[in-house]
Every structure is written in structure tokens, then in C-alpha cells.
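Sequence, please.
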């Protein structure tokens, strides 16, 4: 079966964002490459330190990927609110912990709460404009 991972594009703050995500999820940043590392470098000098590609493995099946947008290499960056990264937490405590960490300096749009369908759910927009949601499905009796 295919797996689906999220690839985020930033406007010059990818490194800051991924270090923030690493502080919440743990793990090691992989393939931390800058545009200045590319052979046959072209483009503006201020873009050389921007992130060309980075990934943060979160579990055996899930990796968060990212890069910065630069002129001529990426399509124009448009920040939208038509998606959220959804986290399936393994416990209520993990849901609380991830929400607290990832919503720091962001905006909680739906505080964590028990739902009528038996889940514990919350939503927020992080300090980088990325929408998140966390869901913990409570065990059924």
C-alpha cells in the first residue's frame, strides 16, 4: 500500500520551522541540504543558505518533508488554509503534549476536547501558518 507524507514549503524560515517540529516530535533531521550545496549554483546569494530539502522521520510510516521557496526553483508560494496535518495520537497524554508543543506561539482554533463520537480532538495553526489537528480515538469497551 502507498504511504502519504506531507511536504511543506516555506518562505525562508524552513530551518526554523523544522527545528521547532523536531523539538515537538523528537528524532533527527535528515537530508538537511541548502540551495548553496547544489552543483552549478545559480540564483541570488541570499538564497544559498535557504533549505533545498529536509526531512524529519516521525514514525516508521510517516515523514515530514520541507524546503524553502526561491525564485526560479519553486512555484510562487501561497500560504493556504485548505489542509491540516492530522496526527493520530496513541494516548490522550500524547495528544495533549503534541498540541501544547506545536501550538506554542500559534493559534488554537479548537481546544482539545472529548467529542460525541468518542474521540479526543483539537486543532491549531502553528507559528509558521501550518494547520494541524490531533485525534486520539478512545478504546471502546
Amino acid at each position: 500500500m502507498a504511504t502519504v507524507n506531507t511536504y511543506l514549503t516555506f518562505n525562508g524560515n524552513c530551518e526554523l520551522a523544522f527545528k521547532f517540529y523536531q523539538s515537538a516530535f523528537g528524532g533527527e533531521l535528515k537530508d538537511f541540504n541548502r540551495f548553496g550545496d547544489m552543483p552549478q549554483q545559480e540564483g541570488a546569494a541570499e538564497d544559498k543558505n535557504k533549505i533545498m530539502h529536509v526531512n524529519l522521520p516521525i514514525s516508521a510510516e510517516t515523514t515530514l518533508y520541507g524546503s524553502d521557496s526561491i525564485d526560479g526553483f519553486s512555484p510562487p508560494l501561497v500560504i493556504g488554509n485548505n489542509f491540516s496535518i492530522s496526527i493520530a495520537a496513541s494516548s490522550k497524554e500524547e495528544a495533549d503534549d503534541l498540541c501544547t508543543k506545536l501550538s506554542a506561539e500559534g493559534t488554537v482554533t479548537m481546544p482539545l476536547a472529548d467529542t460525541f463520537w468518542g474521540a479526543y480532538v483539537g486543532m491549531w495553526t502553528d507559528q509558521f501558518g501550518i494547520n494541524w489537528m490531533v485525534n486520539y480515538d478512545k478504546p471502546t469497551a
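The chain has two helices and eight strands.
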